[in-house]
Structure formats: C-alpha cells, structure tokens
Amino acid sequence: MEIRDNSLSKIAKIRWYNLIDPVTKLLVALFLTMLSFVFTNLYFEVSLVLISFVLLLLSRLSSATINAVYFCLFLIVTMILIQGLFYSGNVHPLFSIMNITVYREGALYAVTMSARILIIIFAIGFFMSTTTISENAKYLEAIGLPYKLVYLLMSVCYILPQIQQNMKKIQFAERARGINPQKTVAQKVRSILPILIPLIIKTFDQSINRSITLQLRGFDSPERTLATPKYHYVRARFNHYLLSFLTIFLIGCKLWQIFSRFL
Fold first, then answer.
1. Strand, coil or helix: 2
2. In three state form, how does the secondary structure of 95-119 look?
3. In Å, how far are 13, 77, 167, 218, 244 from 213, measured between CA atoms?
4. How far out from the chain centre does Cα 126 lie?
5. Res. 118: pLDDT tops 80
6. Interval 58-77: pLDDT, tens
7. Which residues pair with 4 in a beta bridge?
8. Among 28-42, 47-61, 88-102, 247-261, which is the least confidently predicted range?
9. In the chain, domain spans
10. What is the DSSP letter of 195?
C-alpha cells in the first residue's frame, strides 16, 4: 500500500505491521510467551518458535535483534550440555564423548527451555523492529495515558541506546588518540570498566536535560495539542481486549498448573 503526500511530493510505504498498534504488538509478544509456558509439548514449542521467527523475518531486522539471537544460540548450546550432564531426571543416555555421557531427559528439558527463550527474543524483536520510541509515545498519549507516565516509560527505553551511543563516541575518541587499541576481548572489557560509572551518570544527565527541555517547550501543558499517530491502526481496541483476555486466561492456567502440584 502506498500513500502519496502532495504537499511534500513524497511516497510513503505502509507495510502490514504499520497497521497494528504498538500495544497490540506488545500483547502478541506476551501472548506467545505465555503460550510457551502453559503448553510444554516440544512440538508445540517448536511451532511457536517458527511462528515468532516468521513474524521477525517479515519485519525489519535490526542489528540488536541479530546480536541477541547469536547470544541465545551460545546460551542454548551451553544449556543443552549442562542439563544433559547434570539434570536430576537423567536416565537414558543420548550420546557419549570420551566417557562423558549426555542424557536424553536433560537435553529435551534444555531444548524446551531454549525454545521459550527464542520465542521471547523473536517476539520482542518483532515489537522493537516494527515500532519506534516516538511512535509508542504518540500512541500511548493518544489513548489517554498521562504525559508524565509516557515520558517515564520512554526514558527507560532511551537509556540503553543512549549508553551505547555515548560509549561508541568515547571509544572512537580513544582510538583516534591511540588509547586502548581494543584488539582483543579482554582489552575491550578493560576499556569499558573505567568509563562505566561516568557513562551511566552522563546518560542520566542527558535524560534530565531532555526532561527540562520538554518542560520549557510546554510538553507537560494540559492545553497542548496531542501529536497525531503516524498510522491509522486497524481494530486496535478489539485487539487489546481479545489479547488481554487470552493472556489473563493463560496466566490463570499456568497458576492452576503450579498450585495443582501441591494439592
């Protein structure tokens, strides 16, 4: 779908995920996560991984999501080895290498837990890749959330990207001066530790300055005209009610599963 803006003579493409509001995307991620915790069948977990992975592929992949997936793959291999060796329910051997036996029960348990981790990463990656902080702020304020609460939520979202941006500037300046060449992982870690506390303080200081700037511009005024969301979302309120009901139902099912073990 394309929309032509005659005043600016530009063509803006609207993709399918632009028609879904940010809250619905976040509820979808929460719904998929709760499904993975309620239903423990491995085939069902794999199907949820595929669904969330397809959602991620159909969105705009970001480098942060790709790095998170790489880290998860390392974590998954580690979990399979540890649980395959030391899981309390290990009975049937799966394979042996140099008198070290990995058991089937522990490996299956680790695979199930790994599937849940991947579902969370893929679902949250879909939400973060298809929405921006400004889009979230506009929508939350448009549905009636107070400005101060919106700013608080968005400030939390800004902290990590701001820290990464400031760290890149500091590391670039150090490399330009010939300080901390950072050729190995150990050198990178040593270069981060001395600047960690000043980096966090600077990030919070930037957040405070941003808040003061917004107040001076009258963004906290009750008479301020609210910003209009960039896209027209389809069935937003219906999606909120439906996904909220299904998620609460799944949470109740999970709590019943936990309590039934003690009855």
1. strand
2. EEECCEEEEHHHHHHHHHHHHHHHH
3. 32, 47, 23, 9, 36
4. 8
5. yes
6. 887 777 777 777 778 888 88
7. 11
8. 88-102
9. 1-131+233-263, 145-231
10. G
Helix (H, G, I), strand (E, B) or coil at 28: helix
> What is the secondary structure of 37-83 as a DSSP string?
HH---HHHHHHHHHHHHHHHHTS---HHHHHHHHHHHHHHHHHHHHH
- Tell me what pLDDT residue 15 has: 80
Q: Which one, of 226, 55, 230, 50, lies nearest residue 142 by Cα? A: 226
Per residue in 209-259, pLDDT tens?
777 776 776 666 666 666 677 778 888 889 999 999 999 999 999 899 888
The candidate with the shortest Cα–Cα distance to 46, out of 114, 92, 101, 95, is 114
Q: Name the band, by pLDDT with cuts 50, 70 and 90, for residue 191.
A: low
CA distance 138 to 229: 6
Cβ-based burial of 19 (10 A; exposed 0-12, middle 13-18, buried ≥19): middle
Helix H or strand E segment including 248 = helix 236-260
Average predicted confidence (pLDDT) for the chain:
78
Average pLDDT, stretch 178-207?
70
At 198, which helix (H) or strand (E)?
A: helix 196-216
Angle at 34 between CA 257 and CA 65, to 5 degrees: 145
> Closest Cα partner for 126 from 44, 15, 40?
15
- In the predicted model, what is the mean pLDDT of residues 110-128? 88
| Phi-psi domain of 9 (left: phi exceeds 0; alpha: psi -120 through 50; beta: other) | left
Structure tokens at 227: 């910003």
The predicted-structure confidence for 141-160, as pLDDT tens digits, reads as follows 777 777 777 777 777 666 76
Question: What tokens does 20 get?
Answer: 């879904």
Structure-block tokens of residue 235:
């069935």
